[in-house]
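User: I'm writing a tutorial on reading structure tokens. Could you give me a worked example: one chain, its sequence, then its tokens, then a sentence or two explaining what the tokens reveal?
Assistant: Sure. Here is the example chain.
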Amino acid sequence: MSTFLWVIFPYICLAVFVVGHVWRYRYDKFGWTTRSSQLYESRLLRIGSPLFHFGMLGVVAGHFLGLVVPQSLTDSWGVSHELYHAVALIGGIPAGLAALAGLAILVYRRRTVGPVFRATTVNDKVMYAVLGVVIVLGMWNTVAGSVFNLGGEYNYRDGVSPWFRSIFWFQPDASLMEDAPIGFQLHALTAFLLFAMWPFTRLVHVFSAPVGYLVRPYIVYRDRDERPGVAPGTRAPRRGWERVQ
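And here are its predicted structure tokens:
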């Protein structure tokens, strides 16, 4: 079971993540969108969307620093264990709260605004639930370990982080996760589950960027003809004989 959870399952999720995106981009280009619903409701969207997206930027940056950057590197920079966790707590909790509040507003909007709710697929509904669980578990691990010291002293940079990096080096070490607290284990499993669901939800828009705007042709705008006797938005008749039909 340990090998399945911490070796086989992550690779299955990553394979679905990669192949699923390739498949959807190839066969569902017109569906590669967030299916914007701003026309139906914009007040809640103006509040929830920035909260969620900027909060997630902070969350992703914190995970990159904690999972990808080795502890030996930050130690060489003179960053102590206490200072690192203080910075992670000060930056991570506000980012997590912002992302969670934004997600709650967006889910409330989708549930209470009829046209928006009807435009939400089953995959998206499940994705919202899994994403919410991932965020809550991540915040719980930060607060429980750094503030309340529940479950004893545990440094995830000695266990979870090396395990995460070992997956991408194709040398996964399941033993690194066996002694991790249950909160970290559930957070890792639900995060990989979210990766597997990613290609089949509106989350694909994360990989969409308006790069084409940099090289697209100019758009020509023409002024309306404002001469007397000509209706706005119409073209003035040309001089000369009319063509015989």
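What the tokens reveal: The chain has a mean pLDDT of 85. The longest helix spans residues 81-112.
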